[in-house]
C-alpha cells in the first residue's frame, strides 16, 4: 500500500540531504584561521595568553605552582603598563596534562582571537598533541616546561625557553663525578626520564664514572626495594636518581629508612613537596636546577622573590619561576613588536634581550635553528637545613 | 635474594589486605567493585587528616575511619548498587567505576592534589631482619590481615548474619522466602567491605609513607589482580594471591628492572588464568558462572532507524565539518575516533556477550603500526591505516588465543591483562617503538595527495571511516555471522549444543573489534603526530567499554551517541572547571541508574 506520509518524509530526507551537500560545497574545510582572515581579527583592549595546564588530575600539584607564577606575572605586566597599552589577561584551560584533552581543547584556543600565544602543558606527550594545531594556526606555542629535545621539532611556532636535558644532565654527571667513581643509577620510565638518562650516561662515560647498577621505575610504583636492594648491594660510591619529586623522595626514603644505605645521594626535585616527603633524608642531596630564590644575584629576580613572598608567603621554586618568566618573556617581546599572534612570533625571532630570571640572570635570546634558549646555564642546588640553596663547588 | 623475597612478602601483605575486601564483596554480591581502591584512598586520606591536622592516635583514627567508610559503603549500596539489583552485573560494575571517579576527584578537591607524608601512627622502621628494616606498622598489618581473614571466614561460616550473607549470594530469591531480609544483608556486606577498605587504607598509607588522594585507582587495580590470582570470591585466596603477587613482582623486578613492572604484574595474571582459571584457591565451580556476560539488560534491543533515516544522519554528519569551528571539529575528531574503536566492540561485547576491558591494547598496536610504517618505511597513509587495523587484529588474536578456553568474567579480566601486556611490550620493544621516548613527527594523514592539516579535514576523514565502520558492523549484524554472534551471546550452552564453536566465534568477533580499534589508533597517531605508551592506559580501555554501555551494548549507533556524551561531556562541563571530572562521574552513575539498557536501546 502506498503510504503518502511515509513517502513524503523519505523524499524530504533525501532532498534535504542533497540540499545540505550542495550548500556545504560553498563553505570550506580551511578552518577558523582561513575564515578569520576573511572576517578580520577581534579588536578589544585586552589581549590574552592561553594556558593549557593540569588544574586537576595526577599532575595538579604542578598546575598549582604554575598558576602562582602566571598570576603574579600578569599582575606585574599590567602594573607596568600592559602590552602596548592593552591589558594582558590569562585564559586557563584544564587538560589534566592528558593528550586526549589537549588535542580536543587546542582548537578552542586557536579560535579565540583574543589569545595571542599559548603556554603549557606540563608533560611533553600532552604538549606535543596540541603543538601541531597551534603550529598550523600560526599561534606561538611556548612550551616553557618542555625540556624534551624533540619538543620544538613540530614547527617554527613551537618554542621553549627550558634548558635542554642535554645541558642539565651534563652538569649533573659532572658534579656526581667529583665525588664518586662507581655509581648506581635509577630513573623514571617515561619520555623525560629515558632521554635524561641517555644524556647522563654519555657524560658519565666521558668522565670515566662506572655505572655499576641501573634500572628504570614506573611513575606509579609504590615499592622500589626490588631495584634498590641490588643498587645498594653493588656497593656504589653514590646513588643517583633521575626523576621527579614524589618518586625522588620514595627512592631516598627507601634507601635510608628501609635499606640502611648511608652513602651520598643525588636526586630529588626543587619543590616543597619533595622536601616535605623526604624530610631529613633529603639533607645533602645535590640536584641541577635553573633558579635559587636565596642564591640569585640578579636584581629583577630578587624583586620577583620579594613579590612572590608578599603574595604567597613562601619562596618560589623552579616551576614557579619558569611559569612567571614565560609570561614576562611573551609580554616583553609583544611590547617590542605588537601584541598580536604575528607580533609574538616575530618578537621571538628578532628580540635579543629577553629578560632572564633563571641561572645567572640578565637577558637571553633564542637560537633560531632549534627555537631553544642557548645561553641559560644550569646551577647546582643542595639541601641544607631543609631548604634548597645554591651550591657552589 | 632473601632480602628481596622478604621485601616482596611485606608488599604482598599490603595487596592481600585490600584484596580481602574486594573478594568479600565479589563473593557475596557478585559485583566486581572498582570503587574499592577509591574507598581505600578515602580511609587513607581521612587518617592522614586526623593524624596530621588533629594529631589523633591510631585507635581513635581507626574508629573514625570505620564510621566514615562504613557510611560511604552504605550510601553507595543504597543509592547506586541496590537499585541495579536484578540487572546484569556489568551495570553495577560500571556504576562502581563512576562512584570511584566521584570519590577520587572528591578527595582531590577536599584535600588538595599534593603527594604528602603519611603520619607515623605506628612506628614504621624500628625493626630489622634480612637486611631490611620494617616497622611495628608492618607487623600489625600482617596480623590484621590474618585476623580479618579468619574473622570473616568464621563470621560467614558460623555467624547468623554471615550465613544469611552467604545464602543471599547463592540465591537471593530463596533467601527471601526463608525470611532473610535480603536488603539489609546486602547493606551489611557492603558496609563490611567498605570498612575493610578504609582500615586497609591506614596500613597502605603507613607502608607507602608518601600518599596522594589519586592513589586509589592503582591500589584497586593491583588488588583486583591479586584477588583474581588467589581466586575471586575466596577470602583465603585473596591473602594467598596478594602474597604471591608481592613475591613474584619483587623477584621479577629485581631481575628485569621496574620498567617491566606492568609486564610482570599482568603477565602473572594471564599465566595464572591460563594455567588455573579459577585462581589458586578458587573453587572450580566458579568458572561456570558468568556474571559479567550477556547484554547490559537481558533483552535490551537497539533502536534501529529506517534506511532513509540512516542516510540523512550520515549526510548530516558529513556536512558538519563544513560548518563547525576549529574547536567543535577538534572535539569531533576525538568523538569520532573513540566511536570507531567502540563500534567494533558492540559485536564482541554486545552481540557475542563478552565484556572486553583491554581495548587500549589493539588501539595502541594500530597507532604504533601506522606511525612506524609511515615514518620509517614511508608507506602512504591509506595503506598504513589499513595495515594498522590488520596488525592490531592479528596481534590481539594471537595474544588472546589462550584466553577463549576460559569463560565468563575470567575472560573479561584476562582482557585487562592482554591490553596491559600489549602496551608493556610496546614500551619494552625499544629498537622498534622507541619505548617511553615515544614517536614524534608522525606525518598528517595524506589522502590521494591531499594533506589533511586542518581540524575540519581530519574530522571529515574520521567521519568517513566511522561511517564505513558503522556500515560494515551493521551488515555483519544482519548477516548469518551476526546471528551466530547473537546466539553465542544469548546462550552459550545452547549454541554449543547446536555445534557452534563459541570460543572460535568470540575470537572472530574480537578480531573484528580489534581491527576497528587499530584504525582508530592510526587516525589518532596521525592527528597528534606524537604517541607514547602513556596515552594508551587502562582508563582508555574503560572509556571505550563505557561508551558502548552508555549507548546500548549491541547498538552500533548507540556507540556513536555514547562517544558524543563521554568524550564531549568533559568538554561541555568546562563551565565547572574544579568539579569537571567529578560531575562527569555523577553523570555516568545517573545514566546507568535511569537508563540501564543504554541510551540508544529500548527495553525488551
TrEMBL record, chain A:
Start and end residues of each Leucine-binding protein domain: 46-372
Keyword Signal: yes
Gene3D superfamilies per record: 3.40.50.2300
Any one GO biological process: amino acid transport
Signal peptide boundaries: 1-22
Pfam families: Peripla_BP_6 (PF13458)
Top-rank taxon, per record: Bacteria
InterPro entries in alphabetical order: BCAA_transport (IPR051010), Leu-bd (IPR028081), Leu_Ile_Val-bd (IPR000709), Peripla_BP_I (IPR028082)
UniProt-listed CDD domains: PBP1_ABC_HAAT-like (cd06349)
Keywords, ordered alphabetically: Amino-acid transport, Signal, Transport
Family classification: Belongs to the leucine-binding protein family.
Protein name: ABC transporter substrate-binding protein
Organism lineage: Bacteria, Bacillati, Actinomycetota, Actinomycetes, Bifidobacteriales
Automatic annotation (TrEMBL), chain B:
Pfam families named among the record's database cross-references: BPD_transp_2
Membrane topology reported for the UniProt record: Multi-pass membrane protein
Compartmental location: Cell membrane
A GO cellular component annotation in the UniProt record: plasma membrane
Record bears the keyword Acetylation: no
TM region(s), chain numbering: 6-27, 34-51, 57-78, 90-111, 131-156, 188-207, 219-248, 255-275, 305-324, 336-361, 381-403, 410-429, 456-473, 507-528, 540-569, 581-600
Main location: membrane
Record keyword Transmembrane helix present: yes
GO molecular function: branched-chain amino acid transmembrane transporter activity
Entry keyword set: Cell membrane, Membrane, Transmembrane, Transmembrane helix
Protein's recorded name: ABC transporter permease
Amino acid at each position: 500500500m502506498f503510504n503518502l506520509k511515509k513517502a513524503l518524509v523519505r523524499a524530504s530526507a533525501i532532498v534535504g540531504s542533497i540540499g545540505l551537500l550542495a550548500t556545504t560545497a560553498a563553505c570550506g574545510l580551511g578552518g577558523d584561521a582561513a575564515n578569520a582572515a576573511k572576517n578580520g581579527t577581534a579588536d578589544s583592549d585586552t589581549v590574552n595568553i592561553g594556558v593549557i595546564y593540569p588544574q586537576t588530575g595526577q599532575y595538579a600539584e604542578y598546575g598549582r605552582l604554575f598558576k602562582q607564577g602566571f598570576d603574579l606575572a600578569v599582575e606585574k605586566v599590567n602594573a607596568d603598563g600592559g602590552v602596548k597599552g592593552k591589558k594582558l589577561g590569562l585564559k586557563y584551560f584544564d587538560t589534566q596534562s592528558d593528550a586526549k584533552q589537549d588535542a580536543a581543547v587546542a582548537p578552542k584556543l586557536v579560535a579565540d582571537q583574543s589569545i595571542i600565544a599559548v603556554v603549557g602543558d606540563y608533560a611533553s606527550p600532552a604538549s606535543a598533541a596540541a603543538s601541531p594545531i597551534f603550529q598550523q594556526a600560526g599561534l606561538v606555542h611556548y612550551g616553557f616546561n618542555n625540556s624534551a629535545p624533540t619538543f620544538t621539532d613540530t614547527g617554527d611556532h613551537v618554542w621553549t625557553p627550558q634548558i635542554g636535558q642535554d645541558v642539565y644532565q651534563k652538569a649533573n654527571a659532572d658534579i656526581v663525578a667529583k665525588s664518586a667513581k662507581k655509581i648506581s643509577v635509577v630513573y623514571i620510565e617515561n619520555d623525560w626520564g629515558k632521554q635524561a638518562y641517555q644524556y647522563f650516561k654519555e657524560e658519565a662515560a666521558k668522565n670515566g664514572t662506572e655505572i655499576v647498577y641501573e634500572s628504570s621505575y614506573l611513575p606509579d610504583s609504590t615499592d622500589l626495594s626490588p631495584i634498590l636492594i641490588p643498587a645498594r648491594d653493588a656497593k656504589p660510591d653514590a646513588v643517583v636518581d633521575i626523576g621527579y619529586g614524589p618518586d625522588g623522595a620514595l627512592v631516598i626514603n627507601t634507601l635510608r629508612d628501609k635499606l640502611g644505605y648511608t652513602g651520598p645521594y643525588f636526586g630529588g626535585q626543587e619543590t616543597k613537596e619533595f622536601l616535605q616527603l623526604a624530610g631529613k633524608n633529603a639533607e645533602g642531596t645535590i640536584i641541577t636546577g635553573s633558579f635559587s630564590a636565596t642564591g640569585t644575584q640578579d636584581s629583577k629576580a630578587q624583586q620577583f622573590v620579594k613579590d612572590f613572598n608578599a603574595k604567597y608567603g613562601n619562596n618560589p621554586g623552579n616551576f614557579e619561576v619558569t611559569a612567571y618568566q614565560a609570561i614576562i618573556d611573551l609580554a616583553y617581546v609583544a611590547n617590542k613588536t605588537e601584541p598580536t599572534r604575528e607580533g609574538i612570533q616575530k618578537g621571538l625571532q628578532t628580540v635579543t634581550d629577553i629578560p632572564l630570571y633563571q641561572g645567572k640572570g640578565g637577558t637571553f635570546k633564542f637560537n633560531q635553528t632549534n627555537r631553544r634558549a642557548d645561553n641559560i646555564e644550569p646551577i647546582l642546588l643542595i639541601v641544607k637545613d631543609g631548604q634548597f640553596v645554591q651550591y657552589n663547588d | 635474594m632473601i632480602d628481596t623475597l622478604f621485601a616482596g612478602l611485606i608488599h604482598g601483605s599490603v595487596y592481600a589486605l585490600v584484596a580481602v575486601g574486594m573478594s568479600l564483596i565479589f563473593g557475596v554480591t557478585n559485583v566486581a567493585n572498582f570503587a574499592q581502591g577509591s574507598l581505600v584512598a578515602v580511609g587513607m586520606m581521612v587518617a592522614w587528616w586526623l593524624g596530621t591536622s588533629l594529631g589523633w592516635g591510631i585507635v581513635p583514627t581507626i574508629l573514625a575511619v570505620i564510621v566514615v567508610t562504613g557510611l560511604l559503603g552504605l550510601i553507595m549500596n543504597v543509592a547506586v548498587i541496590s537499585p541495579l539489583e536484578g540487572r546484569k552485573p556489568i551495570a553495577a560494575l560500571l556504576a562502581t567505576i563512576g562512584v570511584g571517579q566521584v570519590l577520587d576527584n572528591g578527595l582531590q578537591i577536599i584535600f588538595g592534589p599534593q603527594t604528602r607524608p603519611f603520619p607515623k601512627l605506628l612506628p614504621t622502621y624500628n625493626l630489622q631482619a634480612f637486611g631490611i628494616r620494617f616497622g611495628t606498622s608492618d607487623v600489625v598489618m600482617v596480623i590484621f590481615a590474618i585476623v580479618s581473614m579468619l574473622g570473616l571466614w568464621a563470621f560467614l561460616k558460623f555467624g547468623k548474619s554471615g550465613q544469611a550473607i552467604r545464602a543471599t549470594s547463592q540465591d537471593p530469591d530463596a533467601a527471601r522466602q526463608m525470611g532473610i531480609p535480603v536488603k539489609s544483608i546486602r547493606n551489611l556486606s557492603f558496609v563490611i567491605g567498605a570498612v575493610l577498605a578504609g582500615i586497609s587504607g591506614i596500613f597502605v598509607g603507613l607502608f607507602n609513607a608518601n600518599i596522594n588522594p589519586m592513589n586509589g585507582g592503582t591500589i584497586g587495580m593491583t588488588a583486583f589482580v591479586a584477588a583474581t590470582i588467589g581466586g575471586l570470591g575466596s577470602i583465603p585466596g585473596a591473602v594467598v594471591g596478594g602474597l604471591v603477587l608481592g613475591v613474584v613482582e619483587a623477584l621479577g623486578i629485581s631481575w628485569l628492572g621496574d620498567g617491566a613492572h606492568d609486564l610482570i604484574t599482568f603477565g602473572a595474571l594471564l599465566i595464572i588464568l591460563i594455567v588455573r582459571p579459577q585462581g589458586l584457591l578458587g573453587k572450580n565451580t566458579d568458572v561456570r558462572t558468568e556474571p559479567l556476560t550477556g547484554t547490559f539488560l537481558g533483552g535490551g534491543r537497539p533502536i534501529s532507524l529506517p534506511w532513509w533515516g540512516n542516510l540523512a544522519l550520515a549526510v548530516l554528519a558529513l556536512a558538519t565539518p563544513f560548518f563547525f569551528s576549529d574547536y567543535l571539529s577538534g572535539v569531533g575528531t576525538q568523538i569520532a575516533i573513540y566511536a570507531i574503536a567502540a563500534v567494533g566492540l558492540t559485536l564482541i561485547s554486545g552481540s557475542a556477550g563478552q565484556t572486553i576491558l583491554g581495548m587500549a591494547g589493539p588501539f595502541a598496536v594500530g597507532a604504533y603500526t601506522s606511525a612506524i610504517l609511515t615514518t620509517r618505511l614511508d608507506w602512504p597513509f591509506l595503506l598504513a591505516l589499513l595495515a594498522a587495523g590488520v596488525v592490531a587484529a592479528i596481534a590481539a588474536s594471537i595474544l588472546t588465543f589462550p584466553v577463549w578456553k576460559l569463560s565468563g568474567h575470567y575472560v573479561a579480566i584476562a582482557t585487562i591483562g592482554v591490553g596491559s601486556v600489549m602496551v608493556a611490550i610496546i614500551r619494552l620493544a625499544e629498537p622498534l617503538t622507541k619505548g617511553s621516548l615515544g614517536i614524534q613527527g608522525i606525518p598528517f594523514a595524506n589522502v590521494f595527495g591531499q594533506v589533511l592539516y586542518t581540524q575540519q579535514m581530519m574530522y571529515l576523514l574520521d567521519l568517513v571511516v566511522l561511517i564505513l565502520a558503522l556500515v560494515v558492523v551493521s551488515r555483519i549484524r544482519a548477516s548469518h555471522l551476526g546471528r551466530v554472534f547473537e546466539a553465542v551471546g544469548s546462550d552459550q550452552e545452547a549454541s554449543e549444543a547446536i555445534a557452534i564453536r563459541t570460543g572460535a566465534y568470540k575470537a572472530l568477533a574480537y578480531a573484528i573489534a580489534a581491527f576497528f580499534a587499530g584504525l582508530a589508533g592510526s587516525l589518532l597517531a596521525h592527528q597528534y603526530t606524537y604517541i607514547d605508551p602513556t596515552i594508551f592506559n587502562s582508563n582508555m580501555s574503560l572509556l571505550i567499554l563505557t561508551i558502548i554501555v552508555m549507548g546500548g551494548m549491541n547498538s552500533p549507533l548507540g556507540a556513536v551517541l555514547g562517544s558524543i556524551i563521554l568524550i564531549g561531556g568533559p568538554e561541555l562541563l568546562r563551565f565547572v572547571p574544579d568539579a569537571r571530572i567529578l560531575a562527569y562521574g555523577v553523570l555516568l552513575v545517573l545514566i546507568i541508574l535511569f537508563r540501564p539498557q543504554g541510551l540508544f536501546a529500548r527495553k525488551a
